[in-house]
Design goal:
12 helices; alpha+beta; 6-stranded antiparallel beta sheet; Beta-lactamase; 35% helix; globular
């Protein structure tokens, strides 16, 4: 199994971005005079990005852009409709599914982890005090499983087997005392959803979110797609195509086109997806945007209310922490170009 950099740079593995880096990325472009979206993308590719896809939905109109390569070896150009590993953007779909189940009283935000998954009591510190809401908000203090030496990607083991990697580890902090992003939260939530439903949350997401929205280019797992339709992914300084690494753990496993991600995000925001009660639950627990980071794949999906624009950026290149600065800087330039062309 591929490990290496997944371990060393694990906090970025499924989309965790440090606030100072984001802030720096914003201030660097504060007084920048933007070029066109196409020119900004070409500049980013010239600067080291392998390939880029940008999708913009603004005031009822969708626009598609691509630059650079889908595949280095075969010199296949990026296509705006290519499928992409969206990493932690997947968490938006899990949060939406949870909101629906809370709204219909199948779950409660105040239920404790120990009541929902009794076997973790005494194995995960504070399990009797950690609530579903805290896990959704990354305020549980539960340690990150991907930092454990024995963690491997692409396994078929149960979610609980993976969670057991952090059994008997000290909590990062007391429940609800601070925020700290941990993929273990969403691994546990996926297990809770499966137990509540009596079947896979993947099927629930498909039936209750993807099909109603007509998202035919969104998939729960890499194994569900034709690999030829997925962009290759690269780590800076390596020629290895990372596409075949199968990330199966919930909260980072999904594959989608930029258009489908943008359509989902718009529907999540405007009430198309969730009814009034579901929307209230979702708004109380999670944000309406996300980033994603896997080896070879980096993504940003956000809504900009001031210009009524959903903007999705996919880049099939990754590196160490500093690389996110360039990703944010490029994203900010693209948003500036959208604002400038209104």
């Amino acid at each position: 199994m591929y490990k290496g950099k997944v371990k060393k740079w694990g906090r970025f593995y499924l989309g965790v971005i440090l606030f100072p880096i984001i802030l720096t990325g914003c201030t660097k472009t504060l007084f920048y005079i933007p070029k066109s979206i196409e020119a900004e993308m070409e500049s980013a590719v010239d600067g080291g990005f392998d390939g880029m896809i940008v999708y913009v939905n603004q005031a009822g109109k969708s626009s598609f852009y691509s630059a650079g390569l889908n595949n280095r070896k075969k010199q296949i150009p990026a296509d705006p409709h290519d499928l992409f590993k969206i990493a932690s953007i997947s968490k938006l779909y899990i949060a939406a599914a949870t909101a629906k189940l809370v709204a219909n009283k199948s779950l409660s935000l105040d239920q404790s982890l120990s009541s929902l998954i009794p076997e973790v009591n005494g194995k995960i510190e504070n399990a009797d005090q950690i609530t579903l809401k805290m896990m959704l908000q990354h305020r549980s203090g539960i340690p990150e499983y991907i930092f454990e030496d024995s963690f491997e990607t692409g396994t078929d083991e149960s979610y609980i087997t993976t969670v057991s990697l952090i059994y008997d580890k000290p909590a990062d902090f007391k429940p609800d005392k601070k925020y700290s992003y941990s993929n273990t939260n969403y691994l546990l939530i996926a297990e809770i959803l499966d137990r509540t439903l009596g079947y896979s949350h993947h099927d629930y997401i498909t039936n209750e979110i993807l099909i109603p929205l007509g998202l035919t280019n969104t998939f729960n797992l890499y194994s569900e797609v034709d690999s030829n339709d997925v962009m290759s992914g690269y780590f800076v300084g390596s020629e290895t195509d990372l596409k075949s690494i199968d990330h199966t753990r919930p909260g980072g496993s999904m594959i989608a086109s930029a258009e489908d991600v943008g359509t989902f995000l718009r529907a999540l925001i405007d009430g198309t997806l969730l009814n009034k009660e579901e929307q209230a639950v979702y708004s109380s627990v999670y944000a309406y945007e996300h980033t994603g980071w896997l080896n070879g794949y980096t993504s940003i999906a956000r809504y900009h209310s001031d210009i009524d624009a959903v903007v999705v950026q996919f880049v099939n290149t990754s590196s160490r922490e500093w690389f996110w600065l360039e990703l944010e800087r490029t994203y900010n330039k693209i948003v500036s170009a959208i604002e400038n062309n209104q």
